[in-house]
Amino acid sequence: MKMLRDSDDSIVSIAAALGYSSQTAFAVAFKKLTGESPSDWRRHKR
After folding, report:
1. What is the pLDDT of residues 1-46, one digit of tens each?
2. Would you say the C-alpha torsion 18, 12, 28, 6 has a positive or negative sign?
3. Distance, CA of 11 to CA of 24 (rounded, Å)
4. Is 41 in contact with 34 (CB distance < 8 Å)?
């Protein structure tokens, strides 16, 4: 979450840096945890 909030890196880059095989895999896991997609969460937290 810190990477999404504090950087301008793309969600694809963040997903790869965290070891996810795809943006989709990251988005599914993120939404399970937060209830929002990574892009929606980023918009609301900035």
Report:
1. 999 999 999 999 999 999 999 999 999 999 999 999 999 999 998 7
2. positive
3. 10
4. yes
Render the burial of 11-29: b for 16+ CB within 10 Å, e for the rest. Answer: beebbeeeebeebeebbee
Tell me how long the chain is: 46
- Domain spanning 2-45 has what CATH number? 1.10.10.60
Per-residue DSSP letters for 1-46? Answer: -HHHHH----HHHHHHHTT-SSHHHHHHHHHHHHSS-HHHHHHHH-
Q: What is the pLDDT of residue 14?
A: 98
